Structures are given as C-alpha cells and as structure tokens.
Amino acid sequence: MKIRTSHIQFGSLACLILIVTLSFSQVTVSTPSSSSDALAPYHYDTYTEMTQELQTLAAQHPDIMSLTSIGRTYQGRDLWLVKLSRNVTTEEHEPSLLFMGAHHGNEKPGPAVLLFFIKCMVENYTKPSTECVSGGYNNDSVSPDQVRSVLNSTQIYLIPMVNPDGYEANTRKNCVPNHGPFGLTKKVTSYGVNLNRNYADPWYLYYLLPTQYGCLFCLDDSSMNYHGPFPFSENETKAVKAFAANHNLSISISYHSYGQFIFYPWMHTSKPVPDEKTFLSLGENMSRIDGYTLYTGKTYLVPRYGGTLGTSENFLYRTCGAYAFTVELCLERAPTNAQVMYTTCLRQTEVQLYLCQRALSLPPAKIRHQE
Length: 371
Known about the structure:
The protein is α/β, with parallel strands linked by helices. The chain has a single domain (52-369), classed as Aminopeptidase (3-Layer(aba) Sandwich). Helix content is 29%, strand content 15%. The protein contains ten helices and twelve strands. α8 (276-290) runs antiparallel to α10. It starts with 46 loop residues before the first helix and ends in a 12-residue tail after the last helix.
C-alpha cells in the first residue's frame, strides 16, 4: 500500500506478532476440518443487540467511551451517539471526526463497520504494542500504538445507525407516515422519507430545475427517494443537524452500500468545491488503503449536474466546513460471507485511523470563508 507519507505520522505498521486480538462477535474464525468448510453466514446485529453491546462497551471503558442519545425516531428508538477520546467527558480543542452508518435501513454493513471500529479502539487502547489486528488490505495491520495515538489526540464521534426504524424494517427509508408529498393530506398516503435526501443542501433545486434533478421522482412520497415535505422534516436528520451545529467537525464519513467506491461534494453540480485539492488528497489515500474507486471529475458515478440533492455530504461540507465523504461498502447491500465482512471492517478501520491522523494537520476548509 503506497500512501503519501507526508500526510501520515503513524507508528510503524510492522508488528512482531501478527495475531487477531479483536473480539469480533459476529465472526467465528476456526480451523476448518476440510478445505470445503466455510464460515457460518454473517450475523448483522439487530438494533437491540447493537444497543446492548454499545451499553456494555461504554460501561467497561468509561474513561475513553461515552454513549448518549441525541434524539428518538418516529417509532421511539434512540439515536445513539458514541464518543471515543482520552478525555471522553471533556470537549477539547482537538480535531473532531464523525462517522455515520445506515442512513438507508436496508444497507447493513455500515453499522457493522462502525461497531467493529468502536470495539477495536476500546479493546486495543491498553494492549501491548506488539499485538496487532491483522488481515486487511495487502495484509496490513492495526496496532495498539495507532489506537492510542488517535484517542490521545482526537475526538471521534459515531452514529452507528442513523435510521434504526428503517434498519429494523429492512427498508431504505425511515418509517414515518406520509400525508402526501407536502404533508397536507389527512390521509396516510405512504410511509417513509429517504433521510439522505432530507438535508437542506440544496433541497430547493428540485423545484427550480425539476427536469435536471428528477423532481417527480423525489416528490412522489411513495418513491424510494422521497425527500420529505420540507428540509430536516425528520427526527433523524434534525438530530444530525443539531449535533453538527455544536461540534467543530474536521472530517466525516457516511457509510452506505454497495459498490466499493468513494465520493465527495458536490453531489449536485460539476462545479469543483473550494477544497478540491484537499478532498482529492484525502480520497486518493483512502482509496489506496481500502482498494475502493475514488469517483471525481469526469469519472463521477452520479453526474455532478443532475445528481443528488439533500445529502449529508453537501450539508456537512457547506454548512459545517467538514471534509465529508460517502463510502459505498461491499458489492451487495448486505453480504452474508463472514470473511468478506471481516475484511471490509478491518479495511475501514485502517481508513478511519488514517483520517484521524490526517485531521491533526488539515487546514480549515476554505468554504468556511466563502459561504
């Protein structure tokens, strides 16, 4: 893996003992009795299982992990926020990063990746330097020294499941009842809003340029991309907005599936962002770590004019000045191959650690001074 070393100040990735020290409850790796034996199908935690595991980890590691609810869904589920840091109860003047999963409830790998990362951090913080979690891209590894360096110098926030109602129902949208596209009908006409179309930026272009942005597709409240009756109409996006307004975020990732690619703002126009050079540098190094394709310029997966409106990436970049990425995990919505998921989780842990280290030397986003 070739990464611009001037951007990274990790400790050595070489470990004397390459053993898996992470407790990865979803995967049971055993010595097969024959070459035809395979791992059991991957188990994705339910919302209840995830909640119980997060509560247990927070109780076991209160010095470096906190767990709070930042809101509730229409069906009454807590929106859990995890914070990882050396002084977890104190807001410090350190780079802050936000990692989110499951804006779309039928995209299962995101929460699994984030739970893996949380466990990796808290369980390896006090381990000897010679013990590593290994087996990722190009068989690289994650060392306890990296974990300590990151937790001692950054504040990491995670919302593992932005859309728990949709996750439990296995639907793309959340489960709120709709009363027509503008919320003006007494009768329930359909259910669910696409949360990653409900952020304000630039939500109104559906009406100004309806042909270019597929207005009818997103206005139909039964559509999988229905963007809601108005910006931030949903409890989930309101919670993300309120959190972001109170934290000086440097970098964010929103995990989706599928495709194995990376992209960044703008999501709706071919105009380069003011921080294009920094986005490219970050994205190229992320791609070198996880092997995913970085879409940009003419190779952009979604045409940047006639693209996607109301996404978290546009909002977090323009409004909060965060270098905001989407990472589309895996080659299917919910892989059942346990080894695929283990490798995916470990690769993304390496990406997340890289971004944490890079955040220490990032310049403030130029857009902060242009909006």
